[in-house]
Amino acid sequence: MLLQGHQRTKLDDTDDTLFYSYPRFVTHVDEGFIEQLTQLYRDRLKPNTRILDMMSSWVSHLPEEIEFAHVEGHGLNAEELAKNKRLNHYFVQDLNANPKLPLPDADFDAVINCVSVQYLQYPDAIFAEMRRILKPGGIAIISFSNRMFHQKAIAAWRDGSESDRVELVKRYFASVKGVNLPGFSQPEVIVKQSNVPSFLQMLGMGGGDPFYAVIAYRQS
Question: pLDDT of 165-184, one tens digit each?
Fold first, then answer.
């Protein structure tokens, strides 16, 4: 099993839909992080392709100059998703209650997830779904910093160091495999750390947010 039961627990175990029932029209990372993420998308995502922005909000951080064939949005707050101008369509779903994505097999060229992976209680099921909906060779980009809604992050994330969290996401990708079921490629990790102590960063006291991205491709 990828995670033990206690590792999936949250400090606030109330329904996630209640926590996200009101919109938060803010960015949860600083401008430096966003610039690095947008540049990563610019480098790795191709024009005229189909993108799933999973666990999205009112902004996707996609490069403005790149046109995509379709950007599907997913999240927990309809008001936020409705304001996101990059989305062609969106749906609301609590992945911790139902990890099955209502999307066809092998229909997307990319899945992106920005600063939200820490809230997944059943990442093995979600990453298997990501593999299912990606086309062979499709890319998955999971980005995160050291910020989080502490009460809603799972214990395995809260209790680990930043390097532990990178390894955790790599394990999520590695968990997707089986007999005659190619999973993901060996994950690539991009790290750009801050030299300011993490507790000061979380208080917004300078130095810039650390940037982490774990990238893998669906094998064919």
Answer: 999 999 999 999 866 778 99
List the alpha helices (DSSP H) in the chain. Answer: 16-19, 31-44, 78-83, 123-133, 155-158, 162-174, 198-202
Q: What pTM, to 2 d.p., does this model score? A: 0.91
The C-alpha atoms of residue 105 and residue 121 are separated, in whole angstroms, by 23
d(CA 159, CA 122): 17
Give ∠ CA 218-89-27 in degrees, rounded to 5: 80
